[in-house]
C-alpha cells in the first residue's frame, strides 16, 4: 500500500515542483534591486493559484446574442483574439473586423472562419500598432466605412526580450501596448458613441491587460517627464536583458489599467462602457518567450499545458468583459469573472498622482499625433475648471 500510495502521489509532487519552478522564474524576472520605494503589489503566487486552480471558467450565458452587431478585434488572426472571434460568431455576431498587422495571415484566419460561419460578414483590415500613422489610418477607415461598431477588443500586444525603437521614436513594447492602445481607444470613441446613440445598446471598449500588470513595480514612476523615460536607454553602460523585457511588459499592462480608468473618467458609461480584462494564464500565448533559458521555457510550457486555461476559456473571459459585465465595470479590471480596481498602487493617493501625470503627458503626446483633445473634450474641461476657479 505504501508503494502504491507513493506512485499515486508522484504526479501531484511533480506538478507542485513544476508550479513552484514556474513561479520562481516569473518572480525572478520581475524582481531586481530597486532605487525607489515599493508600492504594495499582489502576490504572484496567490494571483495565479486563484486563477488557475480555484476559479471555474464560465461560458457566456444561454441567450447571449450578438446578432446585428459589429465587433473589431486587434491581433485576431491567432491565439486569444481568434478564439474570441469564434465565440462571438458562435453567438450570432453579424460583422467581424479582423484587425491585424499581417493581412495575409488575417486572410487565412478569415477563410477558416468563413467555412464555420458562412452567414457572417468577415473583413480583414490592416493595422500596425508600432506605427502611429497606421493606427490613425485604421481609425479613419473605421469611422468612415462602418455604420456601427458595437464592440472593440484591443487585444494586440507585444512581448519582447530585447530593446528597440519604433519609427516614431518610442520603445516598441511601450508604444504597442500602451501609447498606440491609448491612441486607438480615443480615435474609436466617435463611432462607439454614435453606435450607442443610434442603436438600443451601449457600445463596448475592452483593453486586454494581464496578471503581470498587477505585480509591476513601475520603477520609473517618479521620472519627469514620465513618458520620455520609457524611451531612454544607454546601451553603452547597460545591456538590455530578458528581465528588462519582462519588467517592460509588466509595466505596460499596468499602464493599460490606468488608461482604462482615465478614459472612463472622460467618457460616461451611458456613452461607452470601457474596461480592461485579464484572461489569466492561457495555454500557448507566448509567455514562455520571456523565459531566460531553455529549461525555464520548458517548465513554462509544461505549466501552461497543465494549469493554463484553454483558448476557449480565455475567450469566455473576453466575452464576459464585453457583454456580461455592464456599467459597474466602467474603468475597472475584469478578472476571474469579477470586477476589480486594478493594481494596488492605483488605490493610493501617490499612485493616483502618478496616474494623472501619465494621462496628462499621454494626452499631450497623442494630441501632437492626431488631435485627440477635441474627441476627449479636454479643452472644454479645462475651460470649465478655469471658470469654476474664477467664480470661487
How would you describe this protein?
- With 392 residues, the protein is α/β, with parallel strands linked by helices.
- It has one domain (2-391): Rossmann fold (3-Layer(aba) Sandwich), CATH 3.40.50.720.
- Helix content is 52%, strand content 10%.
- It has 13 helices and 8 strands.
- The protein has an 8-stranded mixed beta sheet with strand order 3-2-1-4-5-6-7-8, with helices on both faces.
- A hairpin with a 2-residue loop joins strand 7 and strand 8 (338-340).
- Helix 3 (79-90) crosses helix 10 (311-324), helix 6 (172-198) packs parallel to helix 8 and helix 8 (242-266) crosses helix 11.
- It comes from Apiosordaria backusii.
- This is NAD(P)-binding protein.
- GO terms for molecular function: oxidoreductase activity.
Low-confidence regions: 1-13, 385-392
CATH architecture heading: 3-Layer(aba) Sandwich
Helix content: 40-55%
Distance N to C terminus: 82 Å
Number of strands: 8
Mean pLDDT: 87
CATH topology: Rossmann fold
Fourth CATH level, the homologous superfamily: NAD(P)-binding Rossmann-like Domain
Q: How much is the radius of gyration in Å?
A: 21 Å
Portion in strands: 5-15%
Global shape: globular
InterPro entries: NAD(P)-bd_dom_sf (IPR036291), SDR_fam (IPR002347)
Protein name: NAD(P)-binding protein
Transmembrane segments: 7-29
Pfam family, one: adh_short
Amino acid at each position: 500500500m505504501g508503494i502504491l500510495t507513493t506512485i499515486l502521489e508522484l504526479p501531484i509532487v511533480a506538478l507542485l515542483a513544476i508550479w513552484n519552478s514556474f513561479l520562481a522564474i516569473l518572480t525572478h524576472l520581475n524582481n531586481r534591486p530597486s532605487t525607489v520605494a515599493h508600492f504594495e503589489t499582489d502576490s504572484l503566487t496567490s494571483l495565479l493559484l486563484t486563477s488557475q486552480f480555484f476559479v471555474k471558467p464560465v461560458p457566456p450565458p444561454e441567450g447571449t446574442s450578438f446578432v446585428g452587431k459589429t465587433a473589431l478585434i486587434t491581433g485576431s488572426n491567432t491565439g486569444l483574439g481568434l478564439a474570441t472571434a469564434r465565440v462571438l460568431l458562435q453567438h450570432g455576431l453579424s460583422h467581424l473586423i479582423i484587425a491585424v498587422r499581417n493581412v495575409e495571415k488575417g486572410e487565412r484566419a478569415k477563410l477558416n472562419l468563413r467555412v464555420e460561419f458562412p452567414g457572417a460578414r468577415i473583413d480583414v483590415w490592416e493595422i500596425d500598432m508600432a506605427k502611429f500613422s497606421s493606427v490613425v489610418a485604421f481609425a479613419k477607415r473605421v469611422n468612415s466605412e462602418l455604420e456601427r461598431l458595437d464592440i472593440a477588443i484591443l487585444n494586440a500586444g507585444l512581448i519582447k526580450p530585447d530593446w528597440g525603437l519604433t519609427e516614431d521614436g518610442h520603445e516598441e513594447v511601450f508604444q504597442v501596448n500602451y501609447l498606440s492602445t491609448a491612441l486607438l481607444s480615443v480615435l474609436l470613441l466617435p463611432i462607439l458613441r454614435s453606435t450607442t446613440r443610434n442603436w438600443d445598446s451601449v457600445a463596448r471598449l475592452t483593453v486586454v491587460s494581464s496578471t503581470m500588470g498587477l505585480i509591476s513595480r513601475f520603477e520609473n514612476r517618479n521620472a519627469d517627464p514620465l513618458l520620455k523615460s520609457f524611451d531612454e536607454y544607454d546601451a553603452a553602460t547597460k545591456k538590455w536583458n530578458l528581465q528588462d523585457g519582462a519588467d517592460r511588459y509588466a509595466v505596460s499592462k499596468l499602464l493599460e489599467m490606468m488608461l482604462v480608468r482615465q478614459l472612463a473618467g472622460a467618457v460616461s458609461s451611458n456613452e461607452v462602457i470601457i474596461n480592461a480584462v485579464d484572461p489569466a494564464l492561457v495555454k500557448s500565448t507566448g509567455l514562455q518567450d520571456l523565459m531566460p533559458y531553455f529549461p525555464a521555457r520548458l517548465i513554462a510550457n509544461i505549466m501552461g499545458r497543465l494549469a493554463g486555461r484553454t483558448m476557449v476559456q480565455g475567450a469566455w473571459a473576453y466575452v464576459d468583459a464585453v457583454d456580461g459585465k455592464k456599467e459597474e465595470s466602467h474603468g475597472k479590471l475584469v478578472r476571474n469573472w469579477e470586477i476589480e480596481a486594478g493594481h494596488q498602487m492605483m488605490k493610493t493617493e501617490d499612485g493616483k498622482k502618478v496616474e494623472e501625470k501619465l494621462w496628462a503627458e499621454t494626452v499631450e503626446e497623442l494630441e501632437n499625433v492626431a488631435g485627440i483633445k477635441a474627441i476627449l473634450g479636454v479643452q472644454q474641461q479645462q475651460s470649465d475648471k478655469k471658470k469654476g476657479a474664477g467664480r470661487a
